[in-house]
């Protein structure tokens, strides 16, 4: 929250006091999802918005968590997604990079790969997104 405090001080020095909010998100490597983004905007539109809050975890100490709803899909229905699991040393990364390249170069589809490794570097998830 240091940036939040700095901005508040800077604005108070100007004599103007717009609505300034500060959030903590992404704790414990949690993703910041579209539903969480909506919760932030819902908070901004509330009659009495919270100025300091947490998004994505249950704050059982300060009770400053914003509630967020069910997952929101932002992926077009024409998009195909594939999820591959593999071990970091079994050739899965190279094979999937090659597959993405072949799809991207030889079809009208746009191919994108997202590779996620765990802390042990032995398991991985590969998310391939194909869209027209």
Outline:
The chain has 132 residues and is of the alpha+beta class. The chain contains 3 helices and 5 strands.
Protein model, in words:
- With 132 residues, the protein is an alpha+beta fold.
- The protein folds into 2 domains: 2-55, no CATH class; 80-131, no CATH class.
- 30% of the residues lie in helices and 25% in strands.
- The strands form 2 sheets. The protein has a 3-stranded antiparallel beta sheet with strand order 3-5-4, covered by helices on one side. Strands 1-2 form a two-stranded parallel ribbon.
- Helix 2 (34-45) links the parallel strand 1 (22-25) and strand 2.
- The chain is elongated.
- The mean pLDDT is 82.
Would you spell out the secondary-structure blueprint of this structure?
Blueprint: H1 2-14, E1 22-25, H2 34-45, E2 52-55, E3 80-87, H3 92-106, E4 110-117, E5 123-131
Parallel strand pairs: 1-2
Antiparallel strand pairs: 3-5, 4-5
Comma- or semicolon-separated keywords:
132 residues; alpha+beta; 3-stranded antiparallel sheet; two-stranded parallel ribbon; 3 helices; elongated
Count all strands and give the number. Answer: 5
Mean of all residue-level pLDDT scores: 82
Major β-sheet strand ordering: 3-5-4
Alpha-carbon Rg, integer: 21 Å
Low-pLDDT ranges: none
SSE succession = HEHEEHEE
Global geometry: elongated
Specify the number of helices: 3
How far apart, in Å, are the first and last alpha carbons? Answer: 42 Å
Helix content: 25-40%
Beta-strand residue fraction: 25-35%
Q: What would you call the structural class?
A: alpha+beta
Largest sheet composition: 3 strands, antiparallel
Instruction: Please indicate the count of domains.
Output: 2
